[in-house]
Amino acid sequence: MAESRTFVKDIADIESDFSRWYTDVVLKTRLADYGPVKGTMVMRPYGYAIWEHIQRGLDDRFKATGHENAYFPMLIPYSYLEREAEHVEGFAPEVALVTHIGAEELPEKLVVRPTSETIICEMYAKWVQSYRDLPLLINQWANVVRWEKTTRPFLRTSEFLWQEGHTLHETEAEAREETLRMLRVYEEFCQNVLAMPVLIGRKSDKEKFAGAQETYSIEAIMQDGKSLQSGTTHYFGQNFAKAFDIRFQSRAGVLEHPYQTSFGASTRLIGALIMTHGDERGLRLPPYVAPVQVVIIPIAAKKEGVLENAHRLKDRLTAAGLRVKLDESENSPGWKFNEYEMKGVPVRLELGPRDIEKNAAVLSRRDIAGEKNEVSLDGIESSVKALLDDINANMYQKAAERNRAKIVTVQNMDDLKAAADSSKFGLGMWCGERACEDKIKESLQVTTRNMPFDQTPVGSTCVCCGKKAKIKIYFAKSY
RNA sequence: CGGGGUGUAGCGCAGAUGGUAGCGCGCUUGGUUCGGGACCAAGAGGUCGUGGGUUCAAAUCCCGUCACUCCGACCA
Fold first, then answer.
1. What is the domain partition of chain A in residue ranges?
2. What is the pLDDT of residues A446-457, one digit of tens each?
3. Which nucleotide is nearest to A215 (CA to C1')?
4. Between A203 and which of A5, A194, A215, A333 could a Cys-Cys bridge form, CB atoms 3.0 to 4.6 Å apart?
């Protein structure tokens, strides 16, 4: 391998320079590298493998809730974008346009999709005639392009991978139910698979998706106290259905516009789990999406029987359904320990002559630093599996504790400023006026994140204007 | 898009006042090692981001440009 090795000591200190730490971790653990065009990113095998596990986990859940996958073209006629006023206004500044084929100018410029509502609506208009065609529950896995001013690997790139679900429903109630159902799917997935607690709730009008009536989000709390919107679901009502003339004949025999939703989550989830779980030694990957769940390090590999036993161990664990790597390279054991800790592998097994004699291995878990325990090779498949579950639970627990400590109740601007200055989320009351949101953003660089479903008040007046307020909402800086 | 910073070997960096590129790590080969980043020996590797300009001479000075990065603005 021609590429250089990297060392934990090459990664910036997570406490004093979180931004640099993040970039270092992404590049040096080989999750991704920069592409040649501004804002683009190459997902390297280690990073892409995480994405594949995320895809599988989400896709299973989409199928289980009745959705089917399809694929729509990446190029969209510009006129489609213009049909929904808010939508074009929201996306026009950041869309990439195709204007020429070779030297020849196209009669109508094409949009490289920033999202697919428009083209999907256009097709849905052809496909839907009757209430019997509903609900229509389609998801696609795709790339989208949005020319953002500031980019960072996984968090915001010019092109990124995501899934977008687009559904049509007979009734408003059904569509609203779908919007919340998929939000809960995201929440459950983040908690159980990524070991990542999230705040779920509804977005303010200012923060909602261009063209949506309501937007909901899951917000993950990063270790630097910023919020990362990690998945959204939208209730569109009939906005797009009217704009694209999607109609169906109802049970009563009249033509109606269906109610629509969409939901999306992207490779940003990888950024979220890096910044949720990582530590001063590098990555800490949640076990269910870790490309390598168990790494086996042979000790004194040239001694009689060590490698043979290591292979046998690997085969046993692999046969039990675990993702296992046996590192037979010439590097010293100490080097390997550091390497796989940096790469976030959840479980390490050391196997040397002393262990083999005892029919055991030395086990170390990434989520608890410095701990080593002996584990018997008898039934090691089930003990490692149980351990992975425990690691996932522990990682979630730790993250949840940290999150709790990062949320403070705020009553007024002084409180909110104190929260912002100490990199915390403020949970407080808001009058609902855009003016207050704008003022808070301008003075503190803090935005509203979302309104939790539990609206038990934490005060009675708006943190900004002091007028009577009924909406409870999270305020935070965000990525 | 505004303001600051950076760009020299795979990585991290050094190369005052211009004189034709170096260090550490890594990499290759051979050998000894192996329970927390091993050691010895011999090697390979760079048109100094890029395009122009000034000069006898440019990594170094000037102009443009591209990328990365930080802080804002923008942004599911």
1. 8-277, 294-387, 407-476
2. 999 999 999 999
3. B76
4. A215
| pLDDT at A6 (0 to 100) | 65
Q: Hey, what are A302's tokens?
A: 């040239």
Res A138: pLDDT = 98
Nucleotide nearest to A350 (CA to C1'): B35
What tens digit of pLDDT does each residue of A319-336 get?
Answer: 999 999 999 999 999 999
Domain A294-387 is of which CATH architecture? Answer: 3-Layer(aba) Sandwich (3.40)
Compute the distance between CA of residue A388 and CA of residue A111 in angstroms, rounded to an integer: 45
Token pair, residue A293, equals 């769940």
**A133, A127 Cβ separation under 8 angstroms:** yes
User: Which chain B positions come under 7 Å from a protein C-beta?
Assistant: 1, 10-12, 25-28, 32-38, 66-76
pLDDT (mean) for A397-414? 97
C-alpha span between A378 and A355 (Å, rounded): 12
A479 neighbors A156 (Cβ within 8 angstroms) = yes
**pLDDT at A259 (0 to 100):** 98
Q: Residue A2: its pLDDT value, please?
A: 35
Q: Which residues contact A115 (CB under 8 A, 6 or more apart)?
A: A91, A144, A164, A264
**Quick one: A165 exposed, middle or buried, by C-beta within 10 A (0-12, 13-18, 19+)?**
buried
Q: Which nucleotide is nearest to A447 (CA to C1')?
A: B75
Please give the helix or strand (H or E) that residue A21 lies within, else none: helix A18-28
Residue A132 CB closer than 7 angstroms to strand B? no
- Residue A1 pLDDT more than 60? no
Expressed in percent and rounded to 5, the helix, strand and coil fractions of chain A are 35, 30, 35
For the purposes of burial, counting CB atoms within 10 Å of the CB of A461, is it exposed (0-12), middle (13-18) or buried (19 or more)?
middle
- Chain A residues 293-352, Cβ below 7 A from strand B: 299-302, 330-339, 341-342, 350-352
Decide if pLDDT at A148 tops 50: yes
Q: Which fold has domain A8-277?
A: BirA Bifunctional Protein; domain 2 (3.30.930)
Structure tokens, A116: 């697919």
Residues 417-476 of A with CB under 7 A from strand B: 441-442, 445, 447
Percent with pLDDT over 70 in chain A? 99
ipTM: 0.93
Q: Which CATH superfamily includes the segment(s) A407-476?
A: C-terminal domain of ProRS (3.30.110.30)
Name the nt closest to A28 by C-alpha to C1'.
Answer: B11
